[in-house]
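We modelled the chain as a single entity of 284 amino acids. Its sequence is:
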Amino acid sequence: MKYMIVGAKGALAQYFLKDVRFSNNVAFTHEELDIVEVEEIQKAVSEHKPDVLINCAAISDPFECEEELENAINVNCLGPTLLGRVAREHGCKFVHFSTASIYNNNFMDAYSEAVIPRSKNVYPCSKSMGETGLKMETPNHLIIRVSWVFGLTSKCFISRLPEMISSKQELFVNNEQVSKTTYAKDIVDATFKLLEAGKRGIFHFTNKGETTRYEVAEFVRKHFEKEDLIIHPVTSSYFNERIEQPQRNVLATDKYEAQIGKIRTWQEAYTEYLEEIKEQTIGS
């Protein structure tokens, strides 16, 4: 099985590239392949003839999406659509990653794959449109929706918590928004298992257990035994953010677990992430 990965600089792509199961691959950064230029995609796929085309390219910063609307639509919507078209034309499977943010209506239950997305900001709207576009282009697709992804090169809050807790004396952390975290390494493993099982369509994948950013911060604080660090639980209004976020945004993973297998808890996954950070620090 040969894989072609686009968006190779991203945090998720980095875990694909170091997984031995995906060793037979070719990877392109944005500078090497622009996913909104169909001729570039055609040339790369024609040359390398992948069995599976994996899209790790995205603009996931909600504030950047609001400020750079055209770019967000291009990367999150047009890009996946064109990639899906080329994948169909060349007979390869297309894997794409989406987000829990497409559900933006504070649904009190966990979202199954059958729930229709309801989005109102640029980032979730562009991701939702990207799903629609690629599904129209190719039936041979695998869309994996994730949330609060953390990993070594990720810049999101969950990923940066170990650094902040090691260096700060006081933190104010949101304890109102409820979601699930997802270790990038586990997303790669889930992708491999879904491909191996020949799955198509949409799957939700996160680590088990609902949580808040504050609960994750407390977990990390205890791990580092930082008794002198004060972490204040606050509501979303404390940060006075320009973009309203749902207070509850939880993906149901029943479909994945029924068809593929058990998923480990976020605590287990995050503990491994902390060990990964330690090993990287020692190695450097």
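As a brief sanity check on the tokenised model: Strands lie at 3-6, 25-28, 52-55, 93-99, 141-146, 149-150, 170-174, 182-183, 201-204, 230-234. The mean pLDDT is 94.
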